[in-house]
Input
Amino acid sequence: MRYAKLITVALLAAIAMPMAAMAQEKTIEKKVDIKELSKKLDELYRSESSKAVMTMQIVTPNYERTLKMEMTTKGEENTLIRILSPRKEKGISTLKRGNEMWNYLPKVKKVVRVPPSMMMSSWMGSDVTNDDLVRDSSWEDDYTVKQVPAEAGEFCFDYTPKESAAVTWSRVHTCFDAKLELPKRQEFYDEKGRKVRQMKFDRYRKVDGRVIPTRISVIPLSEDKKGNKTVMTYEAMSFDVEVPDETFSMANLRRGK
Output
């Protein structure tokens, strides 16, 4: 009887193992609409128009600071960001209109243009770039994409910038939650092929009728930024709201409020 039980267990194990392998293979080999997912990535926090209130926690080995800000967008061309707190930085604003970008510094009442060469630079001393914040580049238009093997429950892709794209990354490895079809993590590689930054998405919640990751953690991996991270959390968001064109004017930028 004991021998018969051992044979039964062995047979069940023999059947289960290839079935598990087949399930894994299906996860790896299943084809998805790459173009549609790339478009979804571009429009993750955008619509015809949107308004959001968010916090940005900047962490370094020496200090921590938290910014609260308001973001208004219209289409993919227009973005206005205003810092609401802390008091010493209140009113600092960033405007993107088309392919141009400016920062307004209320203490000196000065508008500073951000050239295209600075789009990959840090915004307000964080680990977030200007491009991350205002989304000047497009996952759908500026990258070539191929699907790569993924763990069960994920779709993963490698994004390689086109020669014409103003992007410094040599490759961005991006994984989506297969069920939600929303991003879970991204890994950014420099021109030498080194992994230099991670971006993690979580706290998926339904906001104004749309499920989005409401928290994004940006973690630099270079030795000189060891211990740094920036965490952005969406506290409130509305899509397809009325936003007048004047919102994105230079006059409104200078108001700082």
